[in-house]
Amino acid sequence: MKRYVALLLVAAASVAVAAGSAPGYVSVYISDNRAVGMSISPNNQQEADDIASSSCVEYAEADDKTTCVKAIEGVAKCVAVARSEEGAWAAAMGETTKKASDLAVKTCKKYTKNKCVVDKAAKLCL
């Protein structure tokens, strides 16, 4: 049985690139306890996956480290994760932080009656 905790731990890592650059490879991993690892790599999807997966494992509870799974991947400039207090969540990509955040909140709301929010640490842009 999966545990749903209203706690979102986020580790965001990316490779620094110049503002206005092309989109990068996005990856978000989430564990059963809602630990999150996020990454945007300008190089390739595997690098983004490796960083996001490692970050998720780092922040997952000791007995939950093997439950980190990829929640989203693709090519975008920004990514955001929204959550509700009882554990509903959604990850979304977009051209801007606002677009990614708005879509994550809208999608999260489909799975809860409570408010969904994007924490400051739960958004990342190149």
Would you report the number of β strands? 7
Through-space gap between termini: 37 Å
The portion of residues forming beta strands comes to 25-35%
Strand order of the largest sheet: 1-3-2-4
Q: Helices and strands, in N-to-C order?
A: EEEHEEEHE
Structural class: alpha+beta
The oligomerization state is: single chain
Q: Which regions are unreliable across 5 or more consecutive residues at pLDDT < 50?
A: 1-19
The average pLDDT is 85
Give the number of domains. Answer: 1
Biggest β-sheet, characterized? 4 strands, mixed
Count helical runs.
2
Shape, per Cα inertia axes: flat
Helical content band: 10-25%
Radius of gyration: 14 Å
Would you mind describing this structure in some detail?
This protein is an alpha+beta fold and 126 residues long. The protein has one domain (9-125). The chain is 22% helix and 34% strand. The protein contains 2 helices and 7 strands, in the order βββαβββαβ. The strands form 2 sheets. Strands 1-3-2-4 form a 4-stranded mixed sheet. Strands 6-5-7 form a 3-stranded antiparallel sheet, covered by helices on one side. The longest helix has 15 residues, at 45-59. The protein is flat, with a radius of gyration of 14 Å.
What brief labels describe this structure?
disordered N terminus; three-stranded antiparallel sheet; four-stranded mixed sheet; 2 helices; alpha+beta
Please render the helix and strand layout as text.
Elements: E1 9-14, E2 24-30, E3 35-41, H1 45-59, E4 69-76, E5 78-83, E6 89-94, H2 97-109, E7 123-125
Parallel strand pairs: 1-3
Antiparallel strand pairs: 2-3, 2-4, 5-6, 5-7
